[in-house]
Amino acid sequence: MKSKLPAIEPGVFGLPTESHLIHLDLSGNRISRVEVAFDGLPQLSRLDLRQNSLTTLTALTLSGLTGLRYLRLDDNRISSVDGRASRIARISRAGRP
Question: In which band, very low, low, confident or very high, does the pLDDT at 87 lie, cut at 50, 70 and 90?
Answer without folding.
Answer: low
